[in-house]
Write a structure and sequence with these properties.
The protein is mostly helical. Helices cover about 65% and strands about 0% of the residues. It is globular. The model has no long low-confidence stretch (mean pLDDT about 80).
């Protein structure tokens, strides 16, 4: 099952837990799918709640990392672990 199908057929919490359990060869698609979803949602949030500026860590990620390619595989794995713990 692909990440998009999982998101379309489950509530968000269940979908994230199932995505965390996908085989490694599905992780790139999962990251791209979730990134796109979060980017769309975040754009809407910035246009409404944060239009006058904010201190959200994720809105200032460009100040934390000079280049997102600097983010390591270990950090990515850690993000999946955090997502799983949050939703379990």
């Amino acid at each position: 099952m692909t990440p998009i199908v999982i998101l379309e057929t489950n509530d968000f919490k269940t979908a994230l837990l199932k995505i965390c359990d996908l085989p490694e060869n599905e992780l790139e698609k999962s990251i791209m799918t979730l990134s796109t979803l979060f980017r769309y949602s975040d754009t809407k949030r910035r246009e409404t709640f944060c239009k006058d500026g904010c201190n959200h860590e994720w809105h200032n990620i460009d100040k934390q990392h000079n280049n997102l390619s600097d983010v390591s595989i270990e950090q990515t794995t850690n993000w999946w672990t955090k997502i799983r713990r949050y939703f379990e």
